[in-house]
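FAQ: What does a ligand-bound record look like?

Like this one, built around adenosine-5'-diphosphate:
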Amino acid sequence: MPVPKRKSRLLSSLGEFGLINLLARNLPVSGEVIAGIGDDTAVVKYTARKHMLFTTDMIAEDVHFKRGDSPVLIGQKAMSCNISDVAAMGGVPKFAVISIGLPKGLSVEYVQKIYQGLEKRAREFGVVIVGGDTIKSDKIIINVALTGEVEKKSLVTRSGAKKGDWIFVTGPLGKSFGSTHHLSFRPRLKESRYLVKHVQPNAMIDISDGLAPDLGHILKASQVGARLKEGKIPRRHQASLKEALYDGEDFELLFTLSPKKADKLLRTRTPFSFYHVGEITEQKGKIILLDRNLQVREIHSKGFEHF
Ligand code: ADP
Ligand code: MG
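The answer part, i.e. the structure of the complex:
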């Protein structure tokens, strides 16, 4: 009997995270890997006191930026979003390799400016650029792979949130794409290092997909739920509630603290802003929003996916 042909599936039927899960399914495991796919960076064995962090993030023309945007800022963004993932683990960034795909007709000056932006952020955050790759492509693509390190006791993952924890963000959310914030943001590395030194968060992530989706990642990894207070969520440029919850590319840190540490953080004077936006509950995977009229409703955690 003829073998029936398997119908090919489109990427859109899986979604970005469905695809990643499918691809990751058969990857070999190694005793040297402390945490692989599923957090902001991979964590691998390193020294007696420290873990090594390893991450990569790619940005592409017409997806993450336009050709007409400032090339210096495009370069900055490519480096910053990687540093942001290292900050989300509580670590410090170290070495980067940079791969770029460039259309033939682009000017040399434009590419030099992209590099100026990459170098600027690298210098500011102690990153050393040690290599890369260059190819021709129809659209501009920039990929940065970055290593980092973190003291074992300072490592923060997505999976440690506990019922009763207070939820914080480091800055206003929403309308990142409606402004230049998504290009010019400074990764919250200082904030992260302050936190691991003084209060050690139970869980942390950087907000790249949006507050609700990224909170959803913490909830899934930690097997807990959350309650958000509408009136407490800081917003950029009069963003609507929906924009603050789902826009993405904010690159603020989202973290949880035990009530005792939360109280300590709020009572300490710091040069940083930490906004208390809600609490962790035991209703697995559920996000409840308490609105301004003190009405509660469940909100979804589905955000932007590439497919
Ligand atoms: P972030 O927004 O923090 O950069 P992503 O949402 O891009 O994280 O990725 C989620 C997880 O999936 C990460 O742990 C990342 O390393 C992993 N991942 C993403 N794409 C791939 C891929 N093509 N192959 C293997 N792992 C991947
Ligand atoms: Mg991240």
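Follow-up question: can I read anything off the structure? Yes, for example: Helices lie at 11-24, 71-88, 108-124, 181-184, 189-198, 211-222, 241-246, 259-267.
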